[in-house]
Design goal:
single chain, 7-stranded mixed beta sheet, 6-stranded mixed beta sheet, 6 helices
Length: about 270
């Protein structure tokens, strides 16, 4: 069994310090094989925020796979945003923008969906390039469970009124994942925890606990904001994901008056299981 902690939208610069401290303790207690952070480590992309994010990562006693979010691209100075949008990311977080991690049973691929600008009015919206989709498609014949992580939503999720923030070519990424069994994608951005299934025939539908996934189903998992005060109708949360030959389990961890606790659990069987 492989255990992954899915954390997102930390937003140093708008973080709640006691929740950050409690999250580090909760991650240490969970002892995951890997911590996946799906973007927005910072609020404004300042050097101070990135330094705080680096210190946070250094305190996690597990390997981390991290991809940028839109807030991790500094807006000022403008020349840096336009010509060197990932300079601070590479300096403080990691040199690469397509991280990978694997063991005998699971392959995890990071996809950078953050862009400094684009042909749309919503400045925070992202894009996925054809070359990035091709990199994911290269794992089509890999027999292991495939986990992809990016920052931006690829489907409606639990809020159909927010279609304006769907990442460009997210549908193509989903179709690529649907071409192989046992695929899931971990996302952030909306600060709302949510899980659903998507396939080419039916589109998106709620994930029913205890059900078996179809061969072309893709499991979409959103994490809420783990540590910031930028709540959108939910409390701070992160996801503890277990991956096994029989199926996948997702336990949502929520922060409340008593600290972190599991609030809900979703278990699904793999195709043919």
């Amino acid at each position: 069994m492989t255990v992954i902690a899915h954390v997102s939208d930390i937003h140093f610069g708008r973080e709640v310090p006691e929740i950050v401290t409690a999250l580090l303790a909760d991650l240490a207690a969970a002892a995951p094989d890997l911590v996946v952070i799906s973007g927005d480590l910072t609020q404004f992309g300042s050097h101070g925020e990135f330094a705080a994010a680096r210190a946070f990562l250094d305190r996690i006693p597990a390997p981390c796979l991290v991809v940028p979010g839109n807030h991790d691209i500094p807006a000022f100075p403008v020349w840096e945003m336009l010509f060197h949008p990932y300079r601070r990311w590479r300096r403080y977080i990691t040199p690469g923008l397509a991280p990978e991690w694997s063991n005998a049973a699971v392959l995890v691929k990071g996809v950078n969906s953050a862009r400094p600008y684009g042909p749309y009015l919503n400045w925070s919206r992202g894009r996925i390039a054809p070359a990035q989709i091709a990199a994911v498609a290269s794992a089509e014949r890999d027999p292991r469970i495939l986990v992809v992580t990016a920052h931006h939503p690829v489907a409606y999720g639990d809020d159909t009124g927010r279609a304006y923030d769907l990442v460009t070519r997210g549908d193509a990424l989903l179709a690529t994942l649907a071409a192989r069994p046992r695929s899931l994608i971990l996302l952030g951005h909306r600060h709302r925890s949510h899980a659903s299934l998507w396939n080419p025939a039916t589109g998106e539908r709620p994930a029913v606990p205890g059900a078996a996934m179809a061969r072309d189903d893709v499991l979409i998992v959103h994490a809420g904001t783990a540590t910031s005060d930028r709540l959108r109708g939910q409390v701070n949360s992160w996801n503890l994901i277990t991956l096994a030959e029989a199926g996948v389990g997702i336990a949502m961890r929520q922060y409340g008056a008593g600290g972190w606790a599991s609030a809900a659990r979703l278990d699904l069987g793999w195709p043919g299981g």
